[in-house]
Write a structure and sequence with these properties.
The structure is a single chain. With about 280 residues, the chain is α+β, with helices and mostly antiparallel strands. The protein folds into 3 domains: about 45 residues, Uridine Diphospho-n-acetylenolpyruvylglucosamine Reductase, domain 2 (2-Layer Sandwich); about 120 residues, Uridine Diphospho-n-acetylenolpyruvylglucosamine Reductase, domain 3; about 90 residues, Enolase-like, domain 1, CATH 3.30.390.50. A 5-stranded antiparallel sheet has the order 4-5-10-6-7. A 4-stranded antiparallel sheet has the order 11-12-13-14. Strand 6 and strand 7 form a beta hairpin. Helix 10 packs antiparallel against helix 11 and helix 11 runs antiparallel to helix 12. The chain is globular, with a radius of gyration of 19 Å. About 50% of the residues are buried. Bound molecules: flavin-adenine dinucleotide. The site of flavin-adenine dinucleotide (FAD) has 29 residues, from strand 2, helix 2, helix 7, helix 8 and strand 10.
């Protein structure tokens, strides 16, 4: 398949990117191109103008923030997250999850900003952003704003980003001290999108749980978190099964996904609890 004709501009500053987006209705940012190019070739996306942000050096890199968290530039590639010592040390579950994101060739190009903006409900990074209370940093002609990840994802492939805004970074607050973690994903083949996945943290505060592939957005499972209380994994899994609203597709029925969400939730919580003495 070949895409429809489009214009292309490569920019080197965020301001130029914003100007270019504002200059043309339906212009689209291209980062790693790993989701956008297939959609373009299948004619699921049609844009008159691509704004290539790969020349914006300010969007690269992982830096420490003053509160002990990390700021991850939007153009940081999946592979850079996977091998970053800072990520491994501070967010071991993010390090673990990156191995499940697509295949190495795709991880070499795909970016955190692209994954977050693409907002696939079965993707790992949006679900982890929701679990880790990440802030999405966006800039547009009206300036910069920070959007909590739980408010960012609105529907499949739909976010609260305006058409003339770009994601510039994802900020992660530090993990609560002494948290255990668990990450469980079921996919048909390694590297495929998850059928369902669950990520969990357990600590003094109880549990944090997020699920992907079982709802129309990545879901922070507040009911399951409440049901977990001070360690009831069965109650949490049952609550999660009522909380998710999966769809049928060729990879699995809604009932199957709901069942899987419960099974993976229990496993993720058990793993998280084994890393933390309640
Ligand atoms: C075979 C295959 C398997 C895959 N498997 C997985 C998987 O298991 N898990 C997973 O999570 N992903 C998977 N992916 C998707 C991959 O991770 C993509 O790289 C990612 O979803 C999009 O990142 P990108 O940088 O390539 O974005 P692009 O494809 O360049 O863009 C995606 C969308 O985000 C917008 N965008 C990009 N950057 C920005 C920005 N900074 N600000 C505003 N908008 C922006 C674009 O306009 C576009 O709408 C897979 C892809 C393929 C081809």
């Amino acid at each position: 398949m070949k895409p429809a004709l489009f214009d292309y501009i490569r920019v080197t500053t965020v301001d130029d990117a914003i100007r270019a987006l504002g200059s043309c209705n339906d212009a689209k940012v291209i980062a790693g191109g790993q989701s956008l190019v297939p959609m373009l070739n299948f004619r699921m996306v049609d844009t008159p103008l691509f704004v290539d942000i790969n020349g914006i050096d300010d969007l690269r890199g992982i830096t420490e923030t003053s509160n002990g968290g990390l700021r991850i530039g939007a153009l940081t590639r999946h592979f850079e997250l996977e091998v970053s010592p800072l990520i491994q040390e501070r967010y071991p579950l993010l390090h673990e999850a990156m191995k499940y994101v697509a295949h190495l060739a795709i991880r070499n190009r795909g970016t955190i900003g692209g994954s977050i903006s693409h907002a696939d409900p079965a993707a790992e990074l949006p679900a982890l952003a929701v679990l880790l209370d990440a802030m999405i940093v966006a800039r547009g002609p009206r300036g910069e704003r920070q959007i909590a990840a739980v408010d960012f994802f609105e529907a499949p492939l739909t976010t609260s980003l305006e058409a003339d805004e770009i994601v510039t970074a994802v900020e992660l607050p530090p993990l609560p001290e002494n948290s255990g973690w668990g990450f469980e994903e079921f996919a048909q083949r390694h590297g495929d999108f998850a059928v369902v996945g669950v990520a969990a943290l357990v600590g003094k505060y109880g549990a944090r749980i997020s699920v992907f592939g079982a709802h129309n957005t990545p879901l922070r499972a507040r009911e399951a978190e409440k049901a977990f209380g001070s360690g009831d994994t069965n109650a949490a899994a049952e609550a999660l099964q009522s909380e998710v609203d999966p769809s049928d597709d060729l990879h699995g029925s809604a009932d199957y996904r709901r069942h899987l969400a419960g099974v993976l939730c229990k496993r993720a919580l058990n793993n998280a609890m084994s890393g933390y003495a309640l």
